[in-house]
Design goal:
Layout lengths: L1 H7 L4 H15 L7 H10 L1 H6 L9 E2 L5 E2 L2 H22 L5 H8 L30 H17 L4 H13 L9
Antiparallel strand pairs: 1-2
Protein name: DUF222 domain-containing protein
């Protein structure tokens, strides 16, 4: 039942795109001019975008001499899994409305101007209708496992996988250390 509800309440692609765009901006700024086209290709056919199959130039890449793979589809896949994982966590703890709003709050996304710093907990209020979910350390560990497994399935090199996982998880409001 929870899995069915998770699919029905699944966050839209705009949330995934917004998070992935912030991650790409931080780790692969050179891909920003092609982010829109790469994300559209990913959402049209995720498997094909990740594998690079189905095009005349496989794998999807750029550069002269040595082909450099584009990270955008891989980051989108890992972000989608991260959002799905946290949506399930939210549904387990708070059945009902507000899953997308809670995810936007957890990932600290919203309507902000470019260059505006992401607000911390003290500066952001819970919008009406949003579910306030505090992530626990075990939630973050589970999230890391899901993201790293997705990146491994995509064939991402271990050092790149750590960088991408750190960037995605860094977008989350992490639990405060207890003293």
């Amino acid at each position: 039942m929870a899995r069915k509800r998770a699919r029905e309440d699944a966050p839209d692609r705009a949330l995934i795109t917004e998070i992935a765009k912030d991650v790409i901006e931080g780790i692969a700024r050179e891909e920003m001019p092609m982010f829109s086209a790469a994300s559209q290709a990913y959402f049209a056919d995720p498997q094909r975008a990740i594998s690079g199959r189905g095009s005349r130039q496989a794998p999807l890449g750029f550069g002269s001499g040595m082909v450099e793979l584009i990270l955008t589809p891989i980051v989108l896949a890992a972000t989608a899994k991260a959002v799905e994982c946290l949506a399930e966590t939210i549904l387990e703890r708070t059945p009902g409305e507000g899953t997308t709003a809670a995810l936007r709050r957890i990932f600290r996304v919203g309507h902000r101007s470019p260059g505006t710093p992401v607000p911390d907990d003290a500066d952001q209020r819970t919008p009406s209708g949003a579910v306030a979910v505090e992530l626990r350390q075990e939630d973050i560990e589970r999230l890391r496992q899901v993201v790293e497994a997705t990146l491994h399935e995509c064939g991402t090199a271990p050092e790149s996988a750590r960088l991408i996982a750190d960037a995605i998880i860094g977008r989350c409001r992490t639990p405060r250390p207890t003293s």
